[in-house]
Specification:
Largest sheet: 5 strands, antiparallel
Structural class: alpha+beta
Distance between the termini: 30 Å
Helix content: 25-40%
Order of helices and strands: HEEEHEEH
Number of helices: 3
Strand order of the largest sheet: 1-2-3-5-4
Bound molecules: adenosine monophosphate, zinc ion
Shape: globular
Strand content: 15-25%
Length: 141
């Protein structure tokens, strides 16, 4: 299913041209127009899901293998030393386009410094309590 008002639906299905890295029946992988590094790519399912919570298991299950394939292509084709796989869900998580997409961001020796967070502090009790809250939520029913 596609959403007529969704720009990534139009790009994924070829209605709007893009710098396409890879395409198959279910996905198009394009270059991000605001790249964090050279070759920053976005994996777009051709069907519309607002984020990972809406995706069916079959689609979701193909995203990581495809990210690995694209990342390996960045290492081989662009000389990247590594890559980050990033996927934002929700405005407060930094999502700006509400069509599921996975960022594959090549990393090069010497920078740029990107996709990092400042490690916080934790204590074992607090970690255990937090883990229990999430565990209860994911295992209820
Ligand atoms: P996110 O913040 O995870 O929703 O990521 C959206 C990404 O899409 C950003 O990195 C944008 O630079 C990128 N973007 C938005 N519109 C386009 C477009 N038309 N073509 C390519 N990349 C886009
Ligand atoms: Zn869409």
């Amino acid at each position: 299913m596609n959403d007529q008002n969704c720009i990534f639906c139009k790009i994924a299905n070829g209605e709007i041209p893009s710098a396409t890295v890879y395409e198959d029946e279910e996905f198009r992988v394009i270059l991000d127009m605001g790249p964090a590094s050279r070759g920053h790519a976005l994996i777009l399912p051709k069907s519309h899901f607002k984020d990972i919570t809406e995706a069916d298991m079959e689609t979701a299950g193909k995203l990581f293998p495809l990210a690995s394939k694209i990342g390996q292509g960045m290492k081989k084709g662009l000389g990247a030393a590594g890559f980050n796989v990033v996927q934002n869900n929700g405005t407060c998580a930094g999502q700006t386009v509400f069509h599921l997409h996975v960022h594959v961001i090549p990393r090069y020796e010497g920078g740029p410094e990107i996709v990092a967070w400042k490690p916080g502090k934790s204590d074992p009790d607090e970690l255990a309590k937090t883990a229990a809250l999430i565990h209860a939520a994911v295992t209820e029913n």
